[in-house]
Amino acid sequence: MSQSNIYSHLTAKERDRISFPARMLFEKGMLKGEILDFGCGFGKDVEILKKGNLDVSGYDKHYFPNYPEKKFDTIICFYVLNVLLPEEQSKVLMEVSSLLKPNGKAYFAVRRDLVYVGYRTHKIHQKPTFQCNVILPYKSFFKNENCEIYEYTPINNQKPFVINECPFCSLGNEIELITESATAFAVFDKFPISKGHALIIIKRHCSNYFDLTFKEESACIFMLNFVKEVIQKKYEPNGYNVGINVEKSAGQTVDHVHIHLIPRYDGDVEDPTGGIRNIFPLLGNYLV
């Protein structure tokens, strides 16, 4: 079961003016196209930005709970990550990346003035609320003593972060990105063996799954579950195979850790008994 800070929404502030990050991005002309305020709280930024003739909508799990059904050119996410536990932070990053158009950009604002990190009793609501410092591996767009604004560009629209011949270290923008977190990303397989065949890929160039750090391994499995939900909604498969090839003897052809998530459909093979045991012909069905 994922950990959750159940009172995170109590930190939302009722304001009578636009937030500092929203005002800065608006004045610099960074809010373009269709805009989503992810974690908009009571929605004040959305309200004011609309008056500035921007095409903006808001989503907040607690206050505006209708989850977006389309992708956006620009997504803003202000002071959300600071009140979430690590698993929740990772999910927000994945959700934002999956809602962003291929050439879009997202902006994350985080607090830099936190004095107390951890749980505290909220002064007004008298409930335990959590806050922490957050460091993201994205471009820092702005920073002062109170806040930092990060600019996120999808990994398949960036310059290669490792100069080598690895296809996963230099993705082209023709590759459809499913989602991305600070540590991993997921794409649809270029040569799928079933409809919705996806790959969960670690960002660090590492060839052997068993050489991953605990954080990297956890990020991959967490993303695997997220991608499964995306595929289930889009393709409605009847089952899944999950596979990792480690070393050439096991069929690994790309020396960069990746997990195959392969949707299965009723009738896609004559007899699916044994699943991945069928990598050895005739040994899949051990019940006969």
TrEMBL record:
This is HIT domain-containing protein. Coiled coil: none annotated. It comes from the Bacteria. Pfam families: HIT, Methyltransf_23. It comes from Belliella alkalica. Residues 164-271 form the HIT domain. A motif (Histidine triad motif) lies at residues 256-260.
